[in-house]
From TrEMBL:
It comes from the Bacteria. Keywords: Oxidoreductase. InterPro entries: Ald_DH/histidinol_DH (IPR016161), Ald_DH_C (IPR016163), Ald_DH_N (IPR016162), Aldehyde_DH_dom (IPR015590), GABD/Sad-like (IPR047110). GO terms for molecular function: succinate-semialdehyde dehydrogenase (NAD+) activity. This is Aldehyde dehydrogenase family protein. Coiled coil: none annotated. Residues 2-215 form the Aldehyde dehydrogenase domain. The keyword Ubl conjugation does not apply.
């Protein structure tokens, strides 16, 4: 999030992007990198947004915070939180009090996650938000690209043209300007590094299952 971004909709999308499907989405907004000038206000409003979520049965239309896929998955996320704290991170539980029954994880914000913390390079498949303070744009890009993963990213800014320029420097397969990364059948989908190879959707996926053959017809009298 750049300093010129519209704060209210940015927070709305950040809360949704992190917590839809209980945070169990490959493209969910797992790390948030916020410009220093607006970091404190973002953190306050983001915490309030998470607090407004409704935990419960995912089949009910009013539920906005679902349990995880299994108790094992929930235990794994909780263990990662403990590991992050053991190595110096600050964990703040926010949001609605989740039910004691079921594979729920209390929404948690992790701050002060330094590079030597194992959590820095981890992917949390649950309602855990890692939020970083960036000194400037270069620092934000450094943090964004300093990851073993590279599926998708988002840039929130009032200047979409500048956002598109920054997107060229993102080491990810997809970049959305002013919107969380998503999956659409009419757009290419895929990442780099440990987030995979190749692309799917929009007809590209089928090409992963075929062998491409070149047939070239050349004039018999043409030079080699």
């Amino acid at each position: 999030m750049l300093a010129d971004a519209d704060l209210a909709p940015t927070v709305k999308w950040a809360v949704f992007g992190r917590h839809w499907n209980g945070g169990q989405v490959c493209v969910s907004s797992k790390r948030m990198i916020v410009a220093d000038e607006v970091y404190d206000e973002f953190l306050t409003r983001y915490s309030e947004g998470v607090a407004a979520l409704r935990a419960g049965d995912p089949l009910l239309p009013g539920t906005t915070l679902a349990p995880l896929s299994s108790q094992e998955a929930a235990d794994e996320v909780k263990q990662k939180i403990r590991l992050a704290v053991e190595h110096g991170a600050t964990a703040t539980e926010v949001g609605p009090k989740v039910p004691t029954q079921g594979a729920f994880v209390q929404p948690t914000i992790l701050t002060h996650v330094e590079k030597d913390n194992p959590a820095y390079s981890m992917e949390f498949f649950g309602p855990v938000s890692m939020i970083f303070r960036a000194k400037d744009e270069d620092d934000a890009l450094r943090i964004a690209n300093d990851s073993p993963f590279g599926l998708g990213g988002s840039i929130f800014t009032a200047d979409s043209g500048h956002g598109a320029e920054l997107a060229r420097k993102f080491s990810t397969g997809m970049v959305y300007i002013n919107h969380p990364t998503r999956v659409k059948a009419d757009l290419p989908f895929g990442g780099v590094r440990r987030s995979g190879y190749g692309r799917e959707l929009i007809g590209l996926g089928i090409k992963e299952f075929v062998n491409h053959k070149l047939v070239s017809v050349v004039d018999i009298n043409a030079e080699f």
